[in-house]
Design goal:
about 475 residues, alpha/beta, five-stranded parallel β-sheet, two-stranded antiparallel ribbon, 19 helices, 9 strands, globular
């Protein structure tokens, strides 16, 4: 509730500055002018998980989620003031909305920063016990060790001796040998180390035997959490090693409501139309630059995998010199095919501008997993777990994997990107879409870092065979 308090402080300052109507208005109405917008703020913050410590555990997480939240809040406030015009400052809905957004930024950001500093400085690390050992355990240990806030300290691991080690379970985690105990000694371990949190990575058939103990620990005030969910929260990607096929197939989180899909589709179409109109001069300049640079074709067209595996023809600005021979998609020597203009277009993602035409045609949305070439579908489906789930949603110009990972240049990196794509499909929402758009806009104006630019050179998009 700290953020509502901050907004109320900002509105109180607005009152003292004379932005609210004069004294002839009743006290009750003035009180409504303060409380009602604060309620709208609270709803918007709650919808975007800004009150959920599991999702916002660092100041950076708060700032990242704040921008899309303010975009949603501005729409909510405009509708609110349009419905109740008497509650607007001096009768101006736009001025009222701007005043509240500014007061939120001025009040809540410093308070959140101060709170994060205090928590980092004075709060002790959470004492954590891991129960189980499998392919996820090592990755979870690594995520816990690298988490900035809250800090975690592994104080024990309970596992059966015959459980196989995970691929990275032998990492640098500092757990005393005496604290690695079999499951049968879990009760004693909990009594000895008094953990704040217990993370469970047991398979479902093994978990049933300790469920009663877990309920008892939870009643004692210990947080009991699924290790896979903790991994998702800390890394922003899905741990499909620990997810049985039934958990994904029957999960309602992967089935989004029809209304939400319709809203996303409508917003994507509106944004695409606006972008195409506003950037028409940019299209002409880029086309002219490509023509002057090497005289080849302006556009690159390739068949990609769309919604429900339906193929469509993706349209991009060409960034590589055409060849009439087959080329490897993963060989680094393909970087010499990138043109001078193409390198700049890739750095600022401007080669994707023609994708907005695909959005208007219904092939893509603004946000979603990047569409892969049809020629790679069988390869990826045969080697990447749950790859077919990407076809559950429309592909996008930008996506969670693009802003968190970038381009992949081999199969192992495609598997890593798949973790982010599945996370997006599972947690898809308007708030997450706005967060991705904000991060993408920053890349467009600032450009990607040099390592990212190198990986962009190896993107699948322009490395497929084509004719000159």
């Amino acid at each position: 509730m700290l953020l509502e308090f901050g907004s109320l402080v900002g509105l109180a300052l607005a009152v003292s500055a004379g932005l609210l109507p004069d004294e002839r208005m009743g006290r009750g109405l003035r009180l409504s002018q303060v409380i009602a917008p604060a309620f709208c703020c609270g709803v918007s913050y709650y919808y975007n998980d800004l009150y959920d410590p599991r999702m916002v555990h660092r100041f950076r997480d708060f700032c990242t989620r704040l921008l899309p939240t303010l975009a949603i809040l501005s729409c909510v406030l405009m509708v609110f003031y349009g419905t109740f015009p008497r509650l607007a400052f001096e009768g101006h809905p736009a001025l009222s909305t701007l005043g509240i957004l500014v007061s939120l930024v001025v009040s809540s950001v410093p308070l959140r920063w101060a709170l994060s500093v205090v928590v980092d400085e004075f709060s002790p690390p959470e004492r954590v016990i891991l129960v189980g050992r499998n392919a996820l355990t090592g990755k979870l240990l690594e995520a816990l060790e690298t988490a900035l806030r809250p800090h975690y300290r592994i104080v024990g691991i309970a596992q059966d001796p015959h459980d196989p080690l995970g691929p990275s379970d032998q990492g640098g985690t500092d757990v005393e040998p005496a604290r690695r105990v079999p499951l049968s000694r879990l009760d004693r371990l909990v009594r000895d180390v008094r953990p704040d949190r217990i993370l469970v990575t047991l398979p479902e058939h093994r978990e049933r035997g300790v469920v009663r103990k877990l309920f008892r620990y939870q009643s004692q005030g210990i947080i009991v959490e699924n290790g896979a969910e903790t991994y998702e929260r800390l890394t922003g990607k899905l741990a499909f090693e620990a997810a049985p096929p039934s958990a994904l197939f029957f999960s309602k989180e992967f089935q989004k409501p029809a209304l939400e899909r319709a809203i996303t589709r409508a917003l994507s179409a509106v944004v695409a139309a606006l972008v195409l109109v506003l950037t028409a001069p940019v299209f002409l300049l880029i086309a002219l630059a490509i023509e002057i640079d090497d005289g080849g074709p302006v556009f690159f067209v390739q068949e990609r995998v769309g919604l429900h595996r339906k193929p469509f023809r993706l349209l991009k600005f060409r960034t590589m010199r055409p060849v009439d021979r087959r080329v490897s998609e993963w060989e680094r020597d393909n970087t010499d095919r990138i043109t001078r203009v193409g390198r700049w277009l890739r750095r600022h993602r401007l080669d994707e501008l023609p994708n907005f035409v695909n959005i208007l045609c219904g092939d893509m949305n603004l946000v979603g997993p990047r569409p892969h070439p049809m020629s790679n579908y069988e390869l990826f489906a045969g080697h990447i777990p749950y790859y077919s789930l990407r076809a559950m949603v429309r592909p996008g110009i930008t996506g969670w994997a693009q802003v968190r990972f970038g381009y992949a240049n081999d199969l192992a990196e495609e598997i890593e990107k798949m973790r982010y794509d599945l996370y997006y499909i599972k947690h898809k929402s308007l708030g997450l879409d706005l967060q991705i758009v904000v991060e993408t806009v920053r890349t467009v104006f600032v450009g990607s870092e040099s390592p990212e630019e190198l990986r962009a050179d190896l993107a699948v998009a322009d490395l497929a065979p084509r004719a000159s």
